[in-house]
Amino acid sequence: MDPEQRIRASFAKQGLMATLGATLGSVAPGAVEIVLLPGPAVSQQHGFVHAGAVSAIADSAAGYAALSLMPAGSGVLTTEFKINLLAPATGDRIIARGRVVKSGRTLTLALAEVFAERAGQERLIALLTATLMSITGREGIED
Fold first, then answer.
1. Residues 102-132: pLDDT tens digits?
2. Is 27 exposed, middle or buried (0-12, 13-18, 19+ CB in 10 A)?
């Protein structure tokens, strides 16, 4: 299975992404996009998309970007992330674009920029940096 198919198959198994209504956008080596449509199910008390939902799509975008460069048969786990929330998450779509900064044998450094799109214009609303670990030989990891 090629890396894009592997990522799309893995994403389809993610219960949280399905619960949030997030969808997988573009997938390329070292770069993955996840899109979330704002709505009541992912909002907080002021009507903005909840920071937990923003963090979840950013973490997954960074993780899948890392996985796209890992060997077949590997899985990925986040070992650490930091997110800066720069502006309220409001708009027509929330888009997390993950990309690899440095890929290693065991650890990968990635980041995700999260944008709020309104009327075709994007505004940066969050920045996540993550350290991700390649795992093998664990139940639930397949090509």
1. 999 999 999 999 999 999 999 999 999 999 9
2. buried
Q: Structurally, how many domains does the chain consist of?
A: 1
DSSP labels, 6-35: HHHHHHHT-HHHHHHT-EEEEEETTEEEEE
Three-class SS of residue 53? helix
What is the 3-state secondary structure of 106-143?
A: CEEEEEEEEEEEECCEEEEEEEEEEEEEEECCCCCCCC
Cα 44–Cα 112–Cα 99 angle in degrees, nearest 5: 155
**Domain extent at residue 57:** 3-135
